[in-house]
Structures are given as C-alpha cells and as structure tokens.
Amino acid sequence: MQSDEASQSPLKVVVWGENRHEQVEQQVAERYPAGMHGAVKEGLEENLGDRVRVRTATLDEPEHGLTEEVLANTDVLTWWGHAAHAEVSDEIVERVHRHVLSGMGLIVLHSGHWSKIFTKLMGTTCTLRWRSEQDRELVWTVDPTHPIAKGVPHPIVIDEQEMYGEFFDIPTPEELVFISSFSGGEVFRSGCTFRRGHGKIFFFSPGDQDYPVYHHKDVRRVISNAVEWAVTDRPERQIPELLRYDTGEFFRGQNYQDATS
After folding, report:
1. What is the mean pLDDT of the chain?
2. CB–CB of 102/237 below 8 Å?
3. Pairing between strand 105-109 and 199-204?
C-alpha cells in the first residue's frame, strides 16, 4: 500500500508532440501558437491542477526529449505524431516500449495511431479510412461507467474535424469507451483501452492539426481523465519476467540437447 505522501504526489506527465506542422504551416501555428503539445499540456493543467506536473517533449530535441531519465520519471506519456513517424528513432521507440511494459501509461492521440510505438504495441498495421473535409464528429459514450468518460457529455459535439472511419486495423480493444459518427454515415472506434505488460494504453482519435480540437473543453476532459486512468498503482516499475516459482530466478532458456542428454 502506498504512503499518504506518495498518493498525494502529483502525476508526472510528458506530452510528446511531433511539432512539425506548427513550424511549416502558418495556419496551424496561428491555431496552436504554443503547438498542439502546448494545447494538450494546457488542457491537463486546466482540468487536473495541482494533481499533475506536465512537461513537453518534441521530435527535434536530442533523443526526441525522451531520455532514459525522463521516461523513468514519467507516469504517463501522451503521443501525437503525423507527418514524421519515420523520423522517430527506433532506439527511442524501444525505450518507450520497455517503459510501457514496465508500467508507464501511454495516451495515443489522433494520427498517433500510425506511430511506430503504437503499431509495435498493437502488433497490427493500425490503418484506417479517413477523409479531411471539415466534418462534424459526434463522440458517443458507450461505457458511461468508465473513469475516462466521467463528466463527459453524450455525445461530445466537435463541429470541425477530420473523419476517421472503419475498418480500423487494431486488436479487439479491452474496453471500448467511445465510438464516433460522421455526416457521411461512417462510424469509428474512437476511444479504446489496451494493456501491454504492466502498462495501460488509451487511444483517442479526435485532434487533427487542421482544426482547433485540442482547444475543445470536452476533448481536454477526456484526455485528462485518461491520464489519471493510465497511472498504474505499482510502487516500482518493472518489466514482467519469467521467474522460477521456487527460487525467483530468471529463466533464460536452455539448450534442449544439453537438458535431455
């Protein structure tokens, strides 16, 4: 059981953003003057206040801002990428993957569905159908008892958004919290949870660079709820290991011929 002091410590969150559209597209920079990562950070601080301590990291920082020290001190990482998935270092992806398996929470946002880290964790292509035509999105809560849906209207109305539609090539979600519908009749599993190792993962689709979705109060509420949900209660993060029951020794495998000779 955690001490009162530990339970009252603020959640340590890193908001990771690719931060490329903001640099090269004037309309995106005007829409998100602090970057999309800055808008997500602002939403977390707005909703969670003293319960959270948030820092940002971006693609062009050394080690993408995700050093071993940073990740070791992160409870939850949020991830937004779009145009430069291929530029994310495989070494950093492996590092993030290890920390998720060890118990770090991961919130994957919008086009982060095609990021290296999400496809690695899902084991599928994570492809989908899409249409960018300033569509209206209705985000319907299908599990109103889930903590991520707390205080969220039914439905969330997003007046301007890119359409994401099925088929979405992901494993069957452990929990489906939201589905979205669009004016063309498309539907999409827009809020899904997964667990990998000791880590909790939430994918939430609203949030395209061409629309002010990360200024939407209800979208901000969902992301904030997800951050609180994704924190594990393990006092120490550790990758699951195959251990002998009687000795606690880590099993590293053996040569079959040697074992049977």
Report:
1. 90
2. yes
3. parallel
Quick one: pLDDT at residue 247? 60
Measured CA to CA, the distance from residue 143 to residue 103 in angstroms comes to: 24
> Counting every residue, how long is the chain?
261
Domains along the sequence of the chain with CATH: 4-260 (3.40.50.880)
Q: Give percent above pLDDT 90 in the chain.
A: 75
Assign 3-class secondary structure to 171-198.
CCCCEEEEEEEECCCCEEEEEEEEEECC
The answer to whether 217 touches 209, Cβ cutoff 8 Å, is: no
Closest CA to 201 of 77, 83, 82, 95: 77
> In this predicted model, what pLDDT tens digit does every residue of 127-160 receive, in sequence order?
999 997 789 999 999 999 999 999 999 999 999 9
Cβ–Cβ < 8 Å for 189, 201: no
Span 13-46, pLDDT tens digits: 999 999 889 888 898 889 999 999 999 999 999 9
Q: Which residues have C-beta within 8 Å of that of residue 241, sequence separation ≥ 6?
A: 250
**Closest CA relative to residue 86, chosen from 126, 56, 117:** 117
- Residue 234, CA distances (Å) to 1, 41, 98 in order: 9, 25, 16
Task: Say whether the peptide bond before residue 155 is cis (omega within 30 degrees of 0).
Answer: yes
pTM summary value:
0.89
The span from the CA of 216 to the CA of 214, in Å, is 5
